[in-house]
């Protein structure tokens, strides 16, 4: 990639590229080569203060919250056009900074970026920001006001996609945004900032400041921030929620998952399991909504393990720059260590490895791990209850639909899930019993971004995408109208 994209010297704050307050720089290390491929300045609390001040000024005194929805929509539509032109840049950067296989980049890194800005541009042209309500002789005006300054804190696995999920609806609502990308993948988010600036977003409405955990907490607790929009681990989400609770600060959380996919007893295993296994390896399994618990009828369990293992063994693992590669490296050495520790715990608990469970021998450099199938797992094991964030699927046996639903719901999480069956109506009936935020039937996912995404239980709070995603950045207000205004 071009060095101008990979080596950043400044932050984007207040509509300008500005020098950092500190001198510390953050090297960006390629997960496939273990070599430094880029660098960004590391934000200090002073940089966060500058970014929040710029956003605060843009909200309190700037034009963006006071523009008509149609005017904001025009800017969002221009941003969509510009982001389409930058898709190759975004994809190429993420291959280098977090190891996304280029074959997965369209789906994970760019496919829901420009379309999301188009979606919210179209939505706010017709959205009812104001309505009049009459009850008897009384009349009131209900308005939907922008919540204020938004801090968008994003993870490393789909940096621009998940930043867009927050930024597009926040901007549509009239809210300025301070974007804090993850330290592992900070570079691609600057492209989003550049596109929004070129589209005509006023100064201070979008700010990009990469930083670590300390400045993240400073941003969360900053009195100038009105809402936190966070995607990341459940542990980090709990910490953020507690900090926001002290200030009664608005917060939305898209957190972890341990989603179950139910293969019913009438499903064709040979047709179902290979794409299911392949889907579970998307982004090397580093996806919060991955279907990592695969529930199999006990009578068909042995056959299912054999098919799933063969499917996992056939998945191509290697250089993420190679279009033939499906599974690239994990984002960091610590992440590979984490995956290995979970596989070891599964073996200690009595499960077995049916495929994978090792570092690929042909890839001595880079943080790779082979696609792995854990057999003889049960739902009480750590490997089946905790989010691994790696290319590991657990196959769990069940007897009857009722037990399958009970196992699926026996989880602290509730983010995603799936049902596979020869009878679509039966699949819908089972899906309606699962306590989770989104479900695919026979691999058919809901039509994002027009519908909400988010989780039940410890998988989060609030929703992104859809009209619900816009409402999360709005505060309803009621005004009584005296008769003279009727």
TrEMBL record:
Active site: 254
Keyword field contains Membrane: no
InterPro entries given in the database record: Ald_DH/histidinol_DH (IPR016161), Ald_DH_C (IPR016163), Ald_DH_CS_GLU (IPR029510), Ald_DH_N (IPR016162), Aldehyde_DH_dom (IPR015590)
A Pfam family that the UniProt record links to this protein: Aldedh
Molecular function GO labels: geranial dehydrogenase activity
SUPFAM superfamilies: ALDH-like
Family per record: Belongs to the aldehyde dehydrogenase family.
Official protein name in the record: Geranial dehydrogenase
Organism of derivation: Nocardia aurantia
Origin organism lineage: Bacteria, Bacillati, Actinomycetota, Actinomycetes, Mycobacteriales
Gene that encodes it: geoB_3
């Amino acid at each position: 990639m071009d060095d101008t994209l990979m080596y950043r010297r400044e932050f984007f704050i207040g509509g300008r590229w500005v020098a950092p307050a500190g001198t510390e720089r953050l090297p960006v290390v390629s997960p496939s080569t273990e070599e430094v491929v880029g660098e960004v300045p590391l934000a200090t609390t002073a940089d966060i203060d500058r970014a929040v001040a710029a956003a605060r000024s843009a909200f309190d005194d700037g034009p963006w919250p006071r523009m008509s929805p149609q005017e904001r929509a025009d800017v969002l539509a221009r941003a969509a056009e510009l982001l389409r032109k930058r898709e190759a840049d975004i994809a190429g950067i993420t291959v280098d900074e977090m190891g996304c296989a280029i074959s997965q980049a369209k789906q994970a890194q760019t496919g829901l970026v420009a379309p999301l800005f188009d979606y919210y541009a179209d939505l706010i042209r017709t959205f009812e920001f104001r309505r009049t309500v009459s009850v008897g002789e009384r009349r009131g005006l209900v308005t939907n006001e922008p919540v204020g300054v938004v801090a968008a804190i994003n993870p490393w696995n789909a940096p621009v996609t998940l930043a867009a999920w927050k930024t597009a609806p926040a901007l549509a609502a009239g809210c300025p945004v301070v974007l804090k990308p993850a330290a592992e993948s900070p570079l691609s988010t600057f492209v989003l900032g550049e596109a929004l600036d070129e589209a005509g977003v006023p100064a201070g409405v979008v700010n990009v400041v990469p930083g670590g955990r300390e400045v993240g907490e400073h941003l969360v607790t900053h009195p100038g921030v009105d809402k936190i929009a966070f995607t990341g681990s459940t542990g980090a989400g709990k910490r953020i929620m507690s900090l926001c609770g002290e200030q009664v600060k608005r917060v939305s959380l898209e957190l972890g998952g341990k989603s179950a996919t139910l293969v019913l007893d009438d499903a064709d295993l040979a047709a179902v399991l290979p794409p299911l296994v392949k889907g579970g390896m998307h982004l090397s399994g580093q996806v919060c909504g991955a279907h990592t618990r695969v529930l199999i009828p006990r009578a068909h369990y042995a056959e299912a393990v054999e098919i799933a293992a063969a499917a996992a063994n056939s998945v191509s693992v290697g250089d993420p720059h190679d279009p033939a590669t499906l599974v690239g490296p994990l984002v960091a050495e610590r992440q590979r260590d984490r995956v290995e520790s979970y596989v070891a715990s599964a073996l200690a608990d009595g499960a077995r490895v049916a495929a994978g469970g090792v570092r690929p021998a042909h890839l001595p450099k880079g943080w790779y791990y082979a696609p792995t199938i854990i057999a003889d797992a049960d739902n009480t094991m750590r490997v089946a209850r905790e989010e691994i964030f790696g290319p590991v699927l657990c196959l769990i046996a069940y007897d009857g639909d009722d037990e399958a639903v009970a196992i699926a719901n026996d989880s602290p999480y509730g983010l995603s899930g799936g049902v596979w069956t020869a009878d679509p109506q039966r699949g819908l009936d089972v899906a309606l019993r699962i306590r989770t935020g989104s479900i695919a039937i026979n691999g058919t996912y809901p039509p994002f971004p027009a519908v909400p995404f988010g989780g039940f239980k410890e998988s989060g709070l609030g929703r992104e995408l859809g009209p619900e995603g816009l409402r999360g950045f709005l505060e309803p207000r009621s005004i009584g109208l005296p008769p003279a205004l009727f």
